[in-house]
Design goal:
Radius of gyration: 20 Å
Structural class: mainly alpha
Order of helices and strands: HHHHHH
Strand content: under 5%
Distance between the termini: 48 Å
Number of helices: 6
Largest sheet: none
Shape: elongated
Helix content: over 70%
Amino acid sequence: MTKSIAITTIAACLTAGLTWKSFAEDKKADASVKQVMKDKFKGDTSDIKKATKGELSKEQITSLLAAVKSLEGQKPKKGEEASWKEKCAALVSAVEKLEKGEAGAGEAVKAAANCKACHDAHKGK
């Protein structure tokens, strides 16, 4: 009887651990999107606003590119995953144009970083 209690207890602990790990990974992914939005998109002095005006240093552009690329691997809280991937790809492409110094890159970033379009399609409550 003691052996079966021990086995049951171990099985319960493993199940709880796996469930907690899955929950923690989901929260980590959510935090990543939230953190990118907070760090790069919010405010009048955000990197995105500066990018549209051509006011970012090379280092800031590199940092912005890494941040928007990190969004590609995330899953949207709502909406179609294909739409999420399309919007992320457009944003990455626009920032890559900025990195290369291409003409019209600021306008491309402005168009791709359409907050309302993305939030309407993908932001959860």
